[in-house]
Amino acid sequence: MGSTSDSYSSSQETLATLESNTIYDFIPSYINLGFQKELKLKIIRDTTNPVVLEILGSEKFGFIENKVRSKCWHCLLSRQLRLENSRNNDVLIDHPDENQINLDVKRSFSFVENTKHRDFLKDLLSRIIIGIFRKHPKLRYYQGYHDIVSLFILVWHSNEEVDLSLSTMILSAVDAQFDTVFECVEIFTLVYLRDFMMNSLDFPIDQLKLISHLIKEKDPDLYHSMKLDKISPFFAISSILTFFSHDLKPTNENSIIWEIFDLIISKNSSFIPILIFTNFILMQKQKLIDQINLNTENFDNETDLIHASIQQILLTSISNENFFFKIMTITRLNYNRDVKLLSKVLFDSRIINCGSPLLTTAKGNNKTLFDTKDIDNLIDKQIKINGTRKNIRQTNTRFNIVLYHVINNKHLLVKLSILVGLLAIISKFSNRNLIWETYHKTKKVWLDPLHCLLHNPTSYLYSNNN
Amino acid sequence: MSGNGKNYDSIMKILLIGDSGVGKSCLLVRFVEDKFSPSFITTIGIDFKIKTVDINGKKVKLQLWDTAGQERFRTITTAYYRGAMGIILVYDVTDERTFTNIKQWFKTVNDHANDDAQLLLVGNKSDMDTRLVTYEQGEALAKELGLPFVESSAKDDQNVNEIFFTLARLIQDKIDSNKLSDAKNTNDGNVNIKSSSSSMSKANCC
Ligand SMILES: Nc1nc2c(ncn2[C@@H]2O[C@H](COP(=O)(O)OP(=O)(O)O)[C@@H](O)[C@H]2O)c(=O)[nH]1
Ligand SMILES: [Mg+2]
């Protein structure tokens, strides 16, 4: 463990400050982790004040166990968005993404060993996701959303014995629980995930740029070693789209992914996943640079090289959960400072769309209770911006494809140059040529500086000096 | 870094593309880890795997890039087409739509991949009795597009190794014939990625 933190502690933070976690300062160090958790659990259970819950959830251990967590999430989320008509089961129109949803539901909960329980969870997953999209038909499904919803389902359904005996329980109790899970997923979706649910991935790709930006601010050398000035950090897309629930599976109650979501919900902040990914890179700096050097000869281009290197390091880091707990500590500790570092890009260069959760509903430490109308307005605004963006991108892509083919195709390049040459010769010899005439009439020196220079060097120089 | 214990003779970048759910990831997992699980996880964005194989007595390191099938990921996945020496286009023999979409995938390849990339068409899930696309239809499409064709099953481990070995051999043949025609490219028998494609050397110059 020591080696992983060394490189990072040398850059400003010292381990001493890392370990100081306000609420634990009064707990004597000889009290072991298990007992600390027990103590915290007691405090959470007795807390009725949501503001205190927010603080408890954003600190070490988060909400500790799912039985308590479900209540805390529900309490905090319903203070972030007030849903009207939460019971809404008569929408029957299919959503265009239902085919994709079914494909992904089939591939969910692969880490749940009991097949009966897995089927139970998949059925629930399908009902919730389809319910969300039928209720909010303007939103589009993306692969990865199912990982987030799966996580929510497990908060309420991680105990297989209880779930498998559900069929014998009273229906109204089952229904009430379904409604609570649904409500929490719905609020979380509308408050945190809107950027990802347009009809393109442009907004999440924008969010990825914040990772590059933060690394540039905090470690310029690493920024250059990782060629982040040249490549898009696509390597982080699955972590950002799923808030790490794709990489870090909730295999048991102590899995790190719970703490990540506890932190996001308690802080009401969509910045958390971006900060976690950045801290992962900063803390693995030396390993990453070594890996990149080792790989350099083997890869065709920088996008491939960096992606493969990061994926290799990420995989080894995931298998070491202690390391991720350390990342969480640093993320909590530097939260305010890092968000401040980002605010410059957020407001000056406008990388992020103005309806984004990062700037509105999940910008962190929010004190506003939004309602359905606010969200509707934000969604409409975002759809509009995204539509314009998508058009621009498609035109650019088409242009790039043509350019790419011209550059890569020697024959085409030769033909094109011959064509240009021919055109030049034709225009030279034909005085009645349209191009030639407009050329002369306009007498704009900048249209062809070389031409002017050859014909009349003095006038060209003269006009340039003016 | 210079010439240190290289345990392979050449590297090939290979890409798997096709609609979501056709079995790209299952084929890859079967090939690399010799496993099959019906609830194997969804691919989000791009995944990278490596496997070293033996082709004509040479150790070839295969760089395998698995892609997400959902349309919206295309902006991201096409960024990884560059420099691919082999591209596997996969459809599901039990799902006609994935078969008709192959033409769209073929176009995407033409737009984003190197011109000399070796393609291969694969009809997967041949084990299923709910087949809707016949072998002949697959073969006809392959002929029309000028691609070699294989039917496979990741589940029953039918033709999975063949997919990757056929592709690797075709690429190796291309490299060898390129080397014959291009006498300058003789770096002590080591065929590496950089000498095999014109656009790659360009990408490496900076
Ligand atoms: N019967 C059968 N099912 C398969 C086969 N390959 C994949 N599948 C199923 O198809 C689903 C989707 O496969 P996956 O590899 O995730 O598809 P991808 O989206 O193309 O990567 C898997 O969950 C498997 O259940 C196959 O060869 N035979
Ligand atoms: Mg896949």
UniProtKB/TrEMBL annotation, chain A:
Top-rank lineage group of the source organism: Eukaryota
SMART domains cross-referenced by the UniProt entry: TBC
One Gene Ontology cellular component annotation held by this UniProt entry: endoplasmic reticulum membrane
Pfam families according to UniProt: RabGAP-TBC (PF00566)
Span of domain Rab-GAP TBC: 63-268
Keywords for this protein: GTPase activation
InterPro entries in UniProt: Rab-GAP-TBC_dom, Rab-GAP_TBC_sf, TBC20/Gyp8-like
PROSITE patterns: TBC_RABGAP
GO biological process: endoplasmic reticulum to Golgi vesicle-mediated transport
GO terms, molecular function: GTPase activator activity
Nucleus among keywords: no
PANTHER family linked: RE60063P (PTHR20913:SF7), TBC1 DOMAIN FAMILY MEMBER 20/GTPASE (PTHR20913)
Protein name: Rab-GAP TBC domain-containing protein
Species per Swiss-Prot/TrEMBL record: Kazachstania africana (strain ATCC 22294 / BCRC 22015 / CBS 2517 / CECT 1963 / NBRC 1671 / NRRL Y-8276) (Yeast)
Gene coding for it: KAFR0C03460
TrEMBL record, chain B:
UniProt membrane topology term: Lipid-anchor
Disordered: annotated span: 181-206
Biased composition range(s): Low complexity: 195-206
Subcellular location: Cell membrane; Cytoplasmic vesicle, Secretory vesicle membrane
Chief localization: membrane
Family in the record: Belongs to the small GTPase superfamily. Rab family.
Taxon lineage: Eukaryota, Fungi, Dikarya, Ascomycota, Saccharomycotina
SMART domains on file: ARF, RAB, RAN, RAS, RHO
Source organism superkingdom: Eukaryota
UniProt keyword annotations, A-Z: Cell membrane, Cytoplasmic vesicle, Exocytosis, GTP-binding, Lipoprotein, Membrane, Nucleotide-binding, Prenylation, Protein transport, Transport
Pfam families tied to this protein: Ras (PF00071)
Gene3D superfamilies registered for this protein in UniProt: P-loop containing nucleotide triphosphate hydrolases
Protein name per the record: Ras-related protein SEC4
GO molecular function (one): GTP binding
InterPro entries the record matches: P-loop_NTPase (IPR027417), Small_GTP-bd (IPR005225), Small_GTPase (IPR001806), Small_GTPase_Rab (IPR050305)
Record GO cellular component, one term: plasma membrane
